[in-house]
Design goal:
It is built from 5 helices and no strands. By secondary structure, the protein is mainly α.
């Protein structure tokens, strides 16, 4: 079976999750906060700059400040998000194909507004 293809905008989150050892919850928090995963390197510099908090703690702190919640109510992994997008796109395509295959009813010749 082929491995599902992850879109590039979600693949960077998977890479960031592995590189910075983040949990699925922390990745979802960062996504909801609108953080850029390509910029995590400067945020996760707490060994050289001791006044900075480690990246997972920083994300959790920012999430608490903005949403006043410890964690999201529903946690979805990046893979689940990609699967949901794929399913939605497939459903839209099927609806579009169904509309295309329906026979088009032609208007009656008597009811047309075209002149004599």
């Amino acid at each position: 079976m082929n491995k599902p293809v992850i879109p590039a905008d979600l693949a960077v989150w998977i890479d960031a999750r592995q590189r910075f050892r983040l949990s699925h919850v922390q990745v979802q928090m960062a996504r909801e906060l609108g953080l850029n995963p390509k910029k995590f390197g400067k945020l996760d510099n707490h060994k050289q700059e001791p006044w900075k908090a480690p990246l997972p703690e920083f994300i959790e702190h920012c999430y608490w400040k903005r949403f006043k919640m410890e964690r999201p109510e529903v946690v979805r992994t990046i893979e689940e998000v990609a699967a949901a997008r794929r399913a939605k796109k497939l459903a839209q395509k099927e609806r579009k194909d169904a509309r295309r295959t329906q026979p088009v009813s032609e208007p009656d010749a008597e009811g047309s507004d075209i002149g004599p």
